[in-house]
Amino acid sequence: MSKRRKNKQSTSIWLVLVVAILGAFFKGNDIHQFVSGITNQGVSQTSKSVKSVEDTQLSQQTFKSGGTAYIYVNKNKSTLNPDDWKENKIVYGNLDHLNRTTQATGYLSRTNLVKSSTRSRQTWNPTGWHQKRLTLDGRTVEIQNRGHLLAYSITGKFDQNGNFNSRELGSLDNPKNLATQTAYSNQQTMQIFEERVRDALAKNKKVIYKVSTVFKGNGLMPIGYHAEAISTDGSLNFNVFVWNVQPGVQFDYATGRSRVDRDMTVKEN
After folding, report:
1. Is 207 helix (H, G, I), strand (E, B) or coil?
2. Given the DSSP bridges, would you call strands 139-142 and 52-53 parallel, antiparallel or unpaired?
3. Using CA atoms, how far apart are residues 73 and 57, in angstroms rounded to an integer?
4. How far is CA 42 from CA 17, 38, 46, in A?
């Protein structure tokens, strides 16, 4: 018998012995999960897949420096049902007891696309608004944005109450559609998913798109945004949690105030 074959047999015998010993302490699925954890450990550590969480756990999440800019929710599958929607409209959630933005859901079509250049200046200050202009990596950044839950560029021909009106440009300075969002989250990460929605609409697909703010406790600045979308033909389907973070800056989400932290980094997905 070759030495390689002997080594294989020895490894198998040791694995059987380990499982037998552990079986005395674990029952049923416990032992299966434990052994799976051992055999798959190398895969899980090197995998490039994005962490997935349940939507009920989002407010309990805490971003750690070096983490990815977004994570999947429900394994990246939307829970929205296209059959629930029959006409173009936006349903804006009411501000809560702390005056915080809650959510917005739109049933959108190609007619709702509008150029961002037509947007006028906004003045509404959402909760947690403490704007700062900082120099980060050699460029000046206003670290907080009045971030739209549903991007202005996909809300054309809707009035402030979400009703279809051909004379309206889009959602402008609407307290129910604006939250304090970092420049990075708004201009980098959220853009990824807004582009997917815009591209689907440009191809004449109908899309249901929902964005919810996620706060920790009574915090005034969202820790992130839960965004999900599905087209009526199923070709567009995503469900993500976008962290409300800024490289080089640490935020106190209870108040929205911030401090420079050069060690704070965000990994692009």
Report:
1. strand
2. unpaired
3. 10
4. 22, 8, 6
Give the up-direction half-sphere exposure of residue 257: CA atoms within 13 A in the CB hemisphere. 2
Q: What is the pTM of this model?
A: 0.80
Whether 130 is catalytic is no
- Strands, E assignment, the chain: 52-53, 70-73, 89-92, 103-108, 133-136, 139-142, 144-148, 178-182, 207-214, 224-231, 237-243, 249-252, 257-260
Q: Which residues contact 221 (CB under 8 A, 6 or more apart)?
A: 127, 128, 180, 215, 244, 251, 252, 253, 254, 255, 256
- Report CA-CA distances (Å) from 217 to 9, 105, 144, 258: 55, 23, 21, 18
State the Cα–Cα distance between residues 76 and 78, nearest whole angstrom.
7
Own/partner pairs for 133-139, CB < 8 Å, 24+ apart?
Answer: 134/248, 134/249, 134/260, 136/246, 136/247, 136/248, 136/249, 137/247, 137/248
Give me the tens of pLDDT residue by residue for the chain, a chain 269 residues long. Answer: 544 444 445 544 444 444 444 444 444 434 333 333 333 333 322 234 456 777 788 999 999 999 999 999 999 999 999 999 989 999 999 999 999 999 999 999 999 999 887 777 888 999 999 998 888 878 888 999 999 999 999 999 999 999 999 888 888 899 999 999 999 999 999 999 999 999 999 999 999 999 999 999 999 999 999 999 999 999 999 999 999 999 999 999 999 999 999 999 999 88
Gap between the Cα atoms of 21 and 32, Å rounded: 13
Which residue is catalytic, options 97, 130, 148, 226? Answer: 148
Whole-Å CA distances, 78 to 207, 235, 239: 12, 12, 5
